[in-house]
Automatic annotation (TrEMBL):
Domain Acyl-CoA oxidase/dehydrogenase middle: 133-227
A UniProt-annotated Pfam family: Acyl-CoA_dh_M
Cofactor needs: FAD
Annotated source species: Streptomyces axinellae
SUPFAM superfamilies, sorted: Acyl-CoA dehydrogenase C-terminal domain-like, Acyl-CoA dehydrogenase NM domain-like
Similarity remark: Belongs to the acyl-CoA dehydrogenase family.
Domain of life, source organism: Bacteria
Boundaries of every Acyl-CoA dehydrogenase/oxidase N-terminal domain copy: 9-129
Keywords: FAD, Flavoprotein, Oxidoreductase
Full protein name: Acyl-CoA dehydrogenase family protein
Domain Acyl-CoA dehydrogenase/oxidase C-terminal: 241-396
Signal peptide span: none
Length: 404
């Protein structure tokens, strides 16, 4: 596969690099690198302002299909999307607060939404003004998404009334809107009878958000309780009962260009672990550790080439099961990196960055958060067990496991 950058791409890279250098100053420079996975609580207000700064310059939604028009975003080829993602990560820019709306909902609306829905929602996302969360997982319906029980019923010709519970909802405490799967077909089971709805979060008394405190001490995930929350009929994406198809289309988008951004972050974390291993002399004392660090570097390079190959397949990767391969690769790799970080630290890994006192809360440093948060990497976004089942059945053609 030829995935080379052209002179036009190089000029685009220079423009992106210059813009980031000129704007990552002052207050934004102070929050550079903050707000990544496991640290979404950091500098929230500044990162919201940064989102609007990106929007004013047209850097949000540069990968959107422009067949339906422009929504204030720049046009960009696939390679230019990769260029922007790489330069953003390399600049150490703040973690994005609008990525769910930009990278998941927006392409879904471009593929399945109406013109009215695109005109209503895409410009606000492109300006960095409206933030979204994803309401898929439920207690008892995590990796088995077809087991969704949240219900949405209509009184005559009125709006849907959504009742149920979602869990592990990233950034729900900050989102203005939630796109969710709800069962609109009474008495239906499995994939049938589900609809894809857009629900405003500002409904006091009808929507309650409860943060879930993780062992890393942060709480970017939430439980969301819907008690008759309203969703307008014209805020349903696709036909009633066709939500499963829309939802699967969205999941296929979840592991696109953003995978390359993620890998640049991984490379920075690996570099931090390598520098620590060299500084402490751990690589000289422990040949097994040295071998594992080299293997981690080689595996990360393999993941990058796999991601580029998948992107170069013009969407064929999603149909072939390649996204499941990518998830299996990075989930386990990132967990092992966290374990390596603790092994390099040795006994000091059990200590916080500051002495504990009754007046200072317990804190973690970056590598400790990496270790603790990465415990979830093989679960969220599709557990490894489910991904292996998908590959076995849909790619290798193996029979389903017998159920008793």
């Amino acid at each position: 596969m030829d995935f080379s950058f052209t002179p036009v791409d190089d000029a685009f890279r220079a423009e992106a690099r210059d813009w980031l250098r000129a704007h990552l100053v002052g207050a934004y420079a102070q929050v550079a690198g903050q707000g990544g996975p496991g640290s979404e609580h950091e500098a929230s207000a500044a990162r919201h302002r940064w989102e609007r700064e990106l929007g004013r310059a047209g850097w949000i939604g540069i990968g959107w299909d422009r067949a339906h028009g422009s929504y204030g975003n720049r046009a960009a080829t696939l390679t230019q999307q990769v260029v922007w993602a790489e330069e953003y990560a390399r600049a150490g820019a703040p973690g994005r607060v609008g990525h769910i709306g930009e990278n998941l909902l927006a392409p879904t609306l471009l593929a399945h939404g109406t013109d009215e829905q695109r005109k209503r929602f895409l410009p606000a996302i492109a300006r960095g003004e409206e933030l979204w969360c994803q309401g898929y997982s439920e207690p008892g319906a995590g990796s088995d998404l077809a087991a969704v029980r949240t219900a949405a019923v209509r009184d005559g010709g009125g709006p849907y009334r959504v009742t149920g519970q979602k869990i592990w909802t990233s950034l729900a405490h900050e989102a203005h809107w939630c796109f969710l799967l709800a069962r609109t077909g009474e008495g239906t089971r499995g994939k049938r009878g589900l609809s894809f709805l857009l629900v405003p979060m500002d409904q006091p008394g009808r929507i309650e958000v409860r943060p879930i405190r993780q062992m890393s001490g942060t709480s970017e995930f939430n439980e969301v309780f819907f008690d008759g929350a309203l969703a307008e009929e014209d805020h349903r994406v696709g036909e009633e009962g066709d939500g499963w198809r829309v939802a699967m289309s969205l999941l296929a988008l979840e592991r696109g260009v953003s995978t390359l951004v993620q890998q640049i972050g991984f490379a920075a974390e690996l570099d931090q672990v390598l520098r620590l291993a060299l500084r402490t002399g751990a690589v000289e004392r422990d040949p097994v550790l040295r071998d594992r660090l080299v293997r981690a570097w080689a595996e990360l390079r393999t993941m990058r080439w796999n991601a580029l190959r998948t992107l170069g397949g013009s969407g064929a990767g999603a149909a072939s099961g390649a996204p499941s391969v990518a998830k299996l690769l990075w989930g386990g790799w990132h967990q092992r990196l966290g374990e390596l970080a603790m092994r390099v630290r040795g006994p000091a890994a059990a200590l916080g960055p500051h002495d504990w006192t009754p007046h200072r809360p317990y804190e973690l440093d970056a590598l400790q958060r990496l270790f603790l948060f990465s415990r979830a990497d093989t679960v969220y976004g599709g557990s490894d067990e489910i991904q292996r089942d998908i590959l076995a059945q849909r790619v290798l053609g193996l029979p389903r496991e017998a159920r008793t």
